[in-house]
Amino acid sequence: MKLLHLDSSILGENSASRAISAAIVSSLTAADPAIEVTYRDLAADALPHLTLDVLGNPDGNAELAEFLAADIVVIGAGMYNFTIPTQLKAWIDRVLIAGKTFQYTAEGPQGLAGDKKVFVALARGGYYGEGPAAVMEHAETYLRAAFGFIGIANPTFVLAEGIAIDAETRAKSVAAAIEEAGSLAVSA
Ligand SMILES: Cc1cc2nc3c(=O)[nH]c(=O)nc-3n(C[C@H](O)[C@H](O)[C@H](O)COP(=O)(O)O)c2cc1C
Predict the structure, then answer these.
(1) Which residues have CB under 6 Å of ligand 1?
(2) What would the pLDDT profile of 119-132 be if each residue is shown by its tens digit?
(3) How would residue 187 be classed by pLDDT, with cut points 50, 70 and 90?
(4) From 3.30.70.20, 3.40.50.1980, 3.40.140.10, 3.40.50.360, which CATH number describes the 2-182 domain?
(5) In this structure, which residue's CA is closest to atom 31 in ligand 1?
(6) pLDDT in tens, 124-162
(7) Are 169 and 126 in contact (CB under 8 A)?
(8) Could you say which DSSP state residue 60 is in?
(9) CA distance 21 to 74
(10) Going by CA atoms, what residue is nearest to atom 12 of ligand 1?
(11) Residue 53 Cα, ligand 1 centroid: separation in angstroms?
């Protein structure tokens, strides 16, 4: 099985989502050491914004080929300004490609990538689960919509919230997410 591991945080070693995405990958590879991991740091090696050239040449789209070859995708993302890092958006722009990962039919859009399992480690400075802030959450909701559109209906999210509250809240939140990551399996 092939696992594609992506990180997109700009915060380097202080990133919460990087620690959690690494814990997810460790857990999955411990359960199945034969998993072949490809790692891509979308912050260190940022993709340019989408262009017409990229869109018009899907067969030359290396990120799409890498995604299509993967059985499992593990993504680390922090919430930046209520949504995902632009570095991750640039990757998604290369992966949601008509005719490759979805197609339009008489019955409406149809996802073509439903054979993959996606895990997302998502770190948020505040809390968005309920209350007035819930409508400002455009990271998890966006990723669920984007992956759902290409047929991946149920990505697994490991959340760490309250990262920006104080050091103690951050430490507890990240530790709980890492513990949760430890019990994940590909069939989740
Ligand atoms: C540029 C920037 C924008 C942020 N915007 C938000 C935000 O809109 N809402 C929020 O709850 N936290 C926000 N935060 C806090 C991050 O979500 C939090 O630090 C999280 O840990 C980021 O993930 P990372 O540590 O993996 O980079 C922001 C942080 C940065 C650096």
Answers:
(1) 9, 11, 15-18, 78-82, 123-126, 163-164
(2) 999 999 999 988 89
(3) confident
(4) 3.40.50.360
(5) 80
(6) 999 998 889 999 999 999 999 999 999 999 999 999 999
(7) no
(8) G
(9) 7
(10) 125
(11) 32
